Amino acid sequence: MCTFPLHKLLILCGICFLCFACHPDSGQEETKKTPYIAQVFDYCPAPGQFVNVIPQASQGDTKESILARAEELLVGSVNNGMVSLGAWGGYIVVGFDHDLVNEPDTVDFKIYGNAYENNAEPGIVMVSADENGNGLPDDAWFELRASEYDHPELIRHYRCVYYRPASLTDSILWKDNLGGKGYVSRNSYHEQAYYPLWESADSLVFEGSRLPSTAYQVGTTFKCPAFDWGYADNAPNQSSAACFDIDWAVDASGKAVKLSQINFVKVYTAQQQSLGWIGETSTEVTGMEDLHFSAE
Prior knowledge:
Layout: H1 6-22, E1 39-44, H2 63-74, E2 83-84, E3 91-101, E4 109-112, E5 123-128, E6 142-144, E7 155-163, E8 172-176, E9 181-184, E10 203-210, E11 216-218, E12 221-223, E13 243-244, E14 249-250, E15 261-269, E16 284-285, E17 287-290
Antiparallel strand pairs: 1-3, 2-16, 3-15, 4-13, 4-17, 5-6, 5-15, 6-14, 7-8, 7-10, 8-9, 11-12
């Protein structure tokens, strides 16, 4: 009768255990899901004083390298850092690694920014569900109806073009579809290029809704009061006004849309507003959180 050495038997058992533990069917090595952002799909800021700074960018960067840098700041946490969306229209598109469920009669997710009293930089929020199941944000988008949705001074179908300056240290000209024009003006506090360094195009075009300007000057500074609810980077993170309900979703005609869950969120800067020496209004995002998340 043949016998198997005990030490070899123990080694063989150990190998079998490891193989079982790593086998995809066992679930032992699966990546844990997170209530926070899991992926940054797109980041396209309009020019601004914090562009090329948060996240850091330099000559030679590509869209891919900037997306990776944005993910370092936003994925899996709300405390790693922030990204700036620049002036009006600049946006970010992020996704979760699970269905973010629309629970009835309550808010469903939170967007973190750096707003505080009289320093609101509101961003319009849009949501999308992965209807085709391909894991990409290529299905229909729906705006979350917020407090100023019916404001008489809100401009829908607004379009703005920002032009690459002759020198990267120049202010940046913009023109809109209403015949307006202006500059994203440079200030002495931020001396880097304000036009995204990884963009090769000579102009950047954005379309969406433009919220009314709210800033007013007090002495040598400016105050930017918050809207009531429904915008990113509009209220302090501890405020209930930093939370969002999927039931606010509407289609392009303003009709309510029933979504059982979402997978993707888009935020874009919603005011075209310059504050003198302080600079342009630019929405910042430090993270997002599923308020109903369960690790089970």
